[in-house]
Model the fold of this input.
Amino acid sequence: MGCRKLPRRDIRERFMEKVSVVAETGCWEWLGYRENGYGRFSVSTASLSQKAHRVSYELHVGPIPEGLTLDHLCRNRACVNPAHLEPVPFATNVLRGESPPASNARKTHCPKGHPYDDENTLINPTNGYRGCRACIHERNVERARRRKEQRHARRCVA
Done:
């Protein structure tokens, strides 16, 4: 008596069993295993799991273009609706999000209210940080004033 092989189920059928459509948002909520908020799905029994939104895009749209990553336009990591996914460069995906680099990139003025524009913005070539030229100038003027006072105080004591 040998093992009876079960017929292979269609990958789309297996995939969609783990999806619940949210009417209000149009999101296809992933019901299966999640890691860091992203759904995980094994394409075959022999393969490692892949991110479910990537599998969904490839099943319903086609291959993800080389060098691009999928951005969740709905900002819901558990969504696998291909209409909510857009292939974009990694930097674009990061800057659209809520991470510290994204929120800093959206700032149009320094904490003291000076504009971040071409004339007033200094970019540090080492780390890419933005600096406000007006604030840097104000700090340098104040530092020079304090040093002058200190030199004068030393002369008066001596």
